[in-house]
Amino acid sequence: MSELHTVITLDELNIESLIYPHEDLPDGMKMFAQLIIEKTIWLQTLAVESEPDGRSWNVKIECKIPSQVCAFQLAFLRQSKIDGIRLLGYGQIQRSIILGPKRGKIALRLSAAFTVSQSQYHNMPICNILGSNTSSVASVDLDTVHDNLEKELAVTNPLGIWLMHERVLLHLKEGKGRAELLNSLGDLGLALLNRVKQLGRPEDNTKAINILQQGVNLTSDEDPQKPSWLGNLGLAYKNRFEQVGDIADVNQAIKYYQAAVDLTPDGHMNKPPHLSNLGVALLNRFEQLGDVTDLNHSITCQQAAVDLVPDDNRDKPAQLTNLGSALTMRFRQLGDVADLNQAITHHQSSVDLAPDGHKDKSAQLNNLAIALRNRFGQLGDLADLNQAITHHKSGIDLAPDGHKDKPAQLSNLAFALCDRFEQLGDLADLDHAITYFQTAVGLSPEGHVDKPGWLSNLGYALCNRFEQLGDLADLSHSIACQQAANNLTPEGHVNKAGGLSNLSTALSNRFKRLGDLADLSHSITCQQAAVDLTPDGHTDKPGRLSDLGNVFLFRFEQLGDLADLSHSITCQQAAVDLTPDGHMKKAIWLSNLGTALSNRFKRLGDLADLNQATTYFQAAVDLTPDDHPNKPRHLNNLGHSFLLRNDLSTMTEDCEKILHCNILAACSPSGPARVRFNAAGIWAEYAHKHRPASVLVAYTTAISLLPELAWLGLSISDRHYRLLHAGLVVRDAAATVIAAGDAQKAVEWLEQGRSIVWGQILGLRTPVDELKQAHPKLAEQFISLSKTLETTGITTSSTIKYTTSQPTNIDSENFHGIALQRSKLVDQIRQQTGFEQFLLPKSISHLSCAAESGPVVILNISKYGCDGLVLLPDLEGEVIHVPLKDFTLAKAQFLADLLASTVGRSGRSERLKGCHEANLPSTELIALILSELWTNLVKPILNAMAINNPTQNPERIWWCPTGPLAFLPIHAAGSYGKGQPFGSKLSDYVISSYTPSLSALIEGHRQRLESQTELQLLALSQPSATGQSHIPGTQEEVKYIQEQAIGKLDIICLDGQSATPDNHSTPTESALLLAGSSQLTLSDIIQLELSNADLAFLSACETATGSSELQDEAVHLTAGMLLAGYGSVIGTMWTIQDNDAPQVARDVYAHLLQTSPPDPRQSAKALHIAVQNLQKQGKSFLQWVPFVHFGV
After folding, report:
1. Apex CA 1080: angle with CA 1077 and CA 1085, to 5°?
2. What is the 3 state secondary structure string of 695-738?
3. In what order do the strands lie in the sheet with 84-94?
């Protein structure tokens, strides 16, 4: 019969201790056993008390072992009221073969009774837990396990170590043997604990400390093994410190390491490692408390260790690394480059001496990289930084997943990438850095001593990216990370100052963006604390002083307190004075000092301040390489100082310097787009007066920077913020190129420079039929990336919530990565034959298609002139230029402000109910506005188009106004005084519509090419939105529409329509209020793609009113409906009356539904008729003028 068919019956287990009494075990202890087969507990016995002799336990068990089982285990556990259940021992049995060493007499005998079919064996021992009667045998057994562990031939866990501890307590009650065993156990425990991901659980370290402490206490100082056991105990404390961060543990580690050094005679082989370990612990304490005495002592110990060890000693690389790290730290503290150079030499030697595959090679490469990065920070040699990044990456590749040092190495690589981004401006470096920082934070468990530092580093990188791109999501996440890091960092910690400084920078950036003075005050408090905590001579002291000077300057600019300005200058001067020549950041601090001095000049008028500021700005420019991202900013500052001086003397020389600085800044290959765009604007402005030949080059440069300024990798709200001042430059550019005789170029520039964000979204939805046919894979990638980018950009603007509970939940880098990937794909597509112009700005020949159904008039308003640019049907590529010499930018802005004050536009309005004409604001001012528009703006354009005859059946015209003209009712222009003849107003000649851009109109025409066969109508009313006044007229509107639609088309009516657009403080969150507190926001609307949608009638207030700060971006609900795919949209410019709206809706739908099927393209004419009906009833301007039509 084969062995597998042998039936084994387990009958009885007996456990016997040869040491009695065993006082280390709890009283009243019971024993029980478990049978384990294939990692499953098949059977557990009842717990039994010891036999009367007090030294054995007889466990009853009866079980047949399944024949297919090749091996099984028996585990023995003890149970007590005091300590609960603990594993005492286990053994493995493999089909009659007993595994485990058999050595002489046993101290703890475990035996089992078996019945084995067809076998003469009946009673056999399971395993020997310890060897015979001396501790040396036990040591041999333990050393065997340790050797196997080092060779990774055995898999052991901390539970096994505590099991062995109990065996020792059973075997030896006292004496040297017991001490040797306890120390051997502790040494083995440390080896095991260093293999787990983060040094095991804290309680595992604590158990190792308890074991070792017992061994040390039992050993006299004369014992030659005592120093080694002291060293092991110190290592256990150091491990727990690294895990928990309790400074008491590092103090204990230093105590025991020092004792190990003191007890080790000179010349002993263990003297160098004890010295090195002491040096490391001292460095740990310095990093916590900042006492330079500890740092110097650490270097002394490390240097002694290195000097005592020959190069062929296997410990030499580690000791060189430790010495290099201590020297690097002293450089950062005291700024002596000699320390840093020595550190790099030692780290390089460590790497060179360590063979490939050495377990410490990863750490050695990481430390060398840190030292090289520090030298780059001091001297600015890019070769050092690139070499550091290479070494960091190599070290990370060598470190296995789960290694305890992996988070720190990732964080160090991220810092180096941040440095290279600051030097070269490559956004990919910064995105990768943020990813690595985030991974480092994610890998570190809660409570880890280094987690606050990694959180702070992540926040630093996010703030850096915000400064580059202006993404508010980055800034909010940065502040959340910095606050979490600050809360986790104890007072007195050496990293406290750096964390406070990073938090201050993030808060000051939020103040500059959002204007909350509380952020600025908090920023100053944090930065002042950071400066106070930073010792004199520390390499970070100048930077923190300069940052403190910056926040004082921000508060001076806000509140005007000269004390803040004086503090700012003092801090900036100190930063410059403390920074040696050749330091890579000296240029930044010189520029900051210049800025503070120029502000004092503007306040007090002392020319000496201005001259000194100019000197510092010039020095900053001279110290900065041409391709450095900071170069444009320094040039901008220098140009501004020349501008201030020019205002005093109007020296031609200064004008040339202003131009020179801004030309260089605008044309710089790197640096923030907003800085370069601003420089291009200043260049253009001064070129008008002093170098006219370059003015069009300046504007060409500015227009070319718009895609970078409003980068697709940003949320819509962030893009809008960056475009706040772009429209003015674009309108100036158009006026200038018109004056130069190129009206076609003016049309192209205006199309590129207004409604930019809407144009980008339309571009993301661009059909790519030709690309699909020629290059289907490229088309598929393009569509996928565009869709993701569009969805992410919109939802980031509208739904992102900023919390501190999960500060590392970041999607921005993915968003940016998608934008970069799409940009590279577009470049690849343009390299294909026939696709060279793919997604490039449209030429005038293409833009002329906007006029296929009637003339389109672009109204450009600028300080350089006001012009009409007319596109006519069937005149491809031709533009009629109409100079409007009697209309100016100042007049347009005055009329827009006058209208806003008259109609009470506040950004949140409700439909007026029950108001009589006498109760409405005076309409005389509106009549004045309409007359001005007619006489000086609209009538000259009609004359230029030869539209001279009023008619009862007018044709269509589209208006595309810019700047403040976008807020004026051009469609209602006319003279409305008593006795005015027919033909005295625009509506006597044409039916007016608006379009936010030519592309939007072209897209509307394209979508209407295929007719809709079955029309449906959805009507919603909301008379009582939460928190709003009751407006019953909305229900009356829907009732009228139902009456008109009966029998002509399907209509769905829901009692829950919009009442009021809300929240103009955030333009993309303007909303239609629905049932309860629900909202349909502009962000929601523009996510829609309704290719068959024809008409949206927004009978609510101010649905066609954009943001006064974004005059050229058409950020309103009506434009949003066009973007969603509606061909035509009816909206309102200001508050409408609740009793007028139903009549307008009834008349509009009555006209539309006259034909079958209804023709939505007649909506403009339908509104024209409805408004005429209001006029015939004698309604005031305030009642009929606000209704407007957008689209085809």
Report:
1. 170
2. HHHHHHHHHHCHHHHCCCCCCHHHHHHHCCCHHHHHHHHHHHHH
3. 40-44, 30-37, 72-80, 84-94, 97-98
DSSP string, 573-634: HHHHHHSPTT-TTHHHHHHHHHHHHHHHHHHH--HHHHHHHHHHHHHHHHHS-TTSTTHHHH
Contact by Cβ (8 Å): 1160, 1167: no
Q: Over the range 840-875, which residues count as b (16 or more CB within 10 Å of their CB) and which as e?
A: ebbebebbbbbbebbbbbbbbbbebbbbbbbbbeee
Instruction: Spell out, as residue ranges, where the chain has pLDDT lower than 50.
Output: 1-4, 95-159, 161-162, 168-173, 187, 189-193, 195-199, 796-810, 906-920, 1010-1011, 1025-1027, 1030, 1052-1064, 1071, 1073-1077
Q: Which two tokens stand for residue 703?
A: 């227009």
Nearest to 87 by CA among 16, 13, 32: 32
Query: Distance (Å, rounded) from C-alpha 326 to C-alpha 322?
Result: 6
Q: Provide the pLDDT for residue 844.
A: 93
User: Can you give the pLDDT at residue 147?
Assistant: 38
Beta bridge partners of 12: 60, 113
> Is residue 1099 classed as helix, strand or coil in its secondary structure?
coil
Going from the C-alpha of 458 to that of each of 391, 413, 436, 721, 747, the distances in angstroms are 21, 12, 9, 25, 45
How far apart, in Å, are the Cα atoms of 524 and each of 92, 504, 564? Answer: 67, 7, 11
Tokens encoding 818: 């998608």
**Whole-number pLDDT of residue 1129:** 86
> Rounded to an integer, what distance in angstroms lies between the CA atom of residue 672 and that of residue 864?
28
What is residue 964's predicted lDDT score, i.e. its pLDDT? 93
Angle at alpha carbon of residue 470, lines to 465 and 475, rounded to 5°: 65
Model pTM?
A: 0.69
> Length of the chain in residues, anyone?
1192
Q: Is 670 exposed, middle or buried (0-12, 13-18, 19+ CB in 10 A)?
A: middle
Whether residue 917 contacts residue 886, with contact meaning beta carbons closer than 8 Å, is answered with no
Cβ–Cβ < 8 Å for 738, 746: yes
Mode of pairing for the β-strands spanning 856-862 and 955-961: parallel
Distance between CA atoms of residues 849 and 888, nearest Å:
29
CB neighbour burial string for 1064-1098, b if at least 16 within 10 angstroms, e if fewer: bebbbbbbbbbeeeebbbbbbbbbeeeeebbbbbb
Coil vs helix vs strand at 923: coil
Residue 723 CA to residue 705 CA, distance in Å, equals: 11
